[in-house]
Amino acid sequence: MRKLLLAVSFFSLLHVGCEENKTETTVSADVNQEREELLKTYSQVPDASAILQAGDTGKAVYDLCKQRYADQLNALKKEAEAIGAKLIVTILSPEIGESVTKSTREGIPFIMETAAGLGLEAYDLTTPLAGYTAKQITQMPLDGHWSAEGSKIVAALYQPVIAAAKGVTSSKTYTDAERPATFGDLDPNQDVALDGGKNIPYQLVTNSQGLRMKTALGFPKTKQRVLLLGDSQVYSPFLDNDQIFTSLLQQQFPDTEIMNAGVIGYTLDDCTGLLAEKAKYSEPDLIILVTNPNDIGDFYFTQRNRMARSKKTFTPTTTEIALYQQLFGEKK
Fold first, then answer.
1. What is the CA radius of gyration of the chain?
2. If you ran DSSP here, which 8-state letter would residue 299 be given?
3. C-alpha closest to that of 65 among 328, 268, 275
4. Would you list the domain boundaries of the chain?
5. Neighbouring-strand partners of residue 243
6. 328 — phi, psi (to 5°)?
7. Which one of 117, 161, 165, 280 has the fewest beta carbons within 10 angstroms of its own beta carbon?
8. In terms of C-beta density within 10 A (0-12 exposed, 13-18 middle, 19 or more buried), how is residue 21 classed?
9. H-helix or E-strand spanning residue 159
10. Cα 266 from Cα 306, distance rounded (Å)
11. For residue range 108-132, what is the model confidence (pLDDT) as tens digits?
């Protein structure tokens, strides 16, 4: 049963969740109290593979998660279209070899089909990674995030994606009065040494606009801008700024500004909210979503209540509660 408990997989610090005919409520004192009660009552977070292995109830919940993922991807597409930017979907995961989970095997074709159904260009970048070992591309056995060598390999995978979109531009602009102080959710103007509690020290540098890059964006823009949205796979913990794959891509594309808006633990929900509220004001021409099949599980209510940047309350459906009770037992 331990593998059904809170899942912190070898490649993400925290990734799991899902949902159904739930209600979403804006933040208020009462809502915060409801959310806190839900967190207290339903404290466990199953991973996507645990959901898939939970029989008919698990399948029903996973199907709900898939529908919510599809709806949110459509919402992200609309946000990109509203600013005249091109959205590209990329599937990226360091799960390779024996570490490939059931959720990855089932999730990849679903994401590709969903993107195609929405008319979005999509790339499965997990296939070329299959030729490597975990030790070649990650910091295993200490951690499952990209190693310096793995970051170089990932940069090489994204190079043709960005090159093919070289002529993509958006004419959408904003005034200085409209633009917020930050475009990303990281604290601005950081230059700190971190180790994530794993004794793998790295230097985090953020610009004045809350993005993991050293230089600030100027206006009016004079170069194509590429915005990468995603979780820790984009943020790239345990690597210095100069080693992360977005910085390597910046070196390869000096006539393009590569913007890293990755945040550890961010879900598709969070990426959509970040784009709508902040990141769009950076005036991106191309938006690259970095997702992986485990993101489907992020739509389970316990994950959303625990991690959502919106701080909304996600009330579980009867099916979600039934799954929770099946996995973790009746609540007292």
1. 19
2. B
3. 268
4. 2-328
5. none
6. -120, -5
7. 117
8. exposed
9. helix 148-164
10. 11
11. 999 999 999 999 999 999 999 999 9
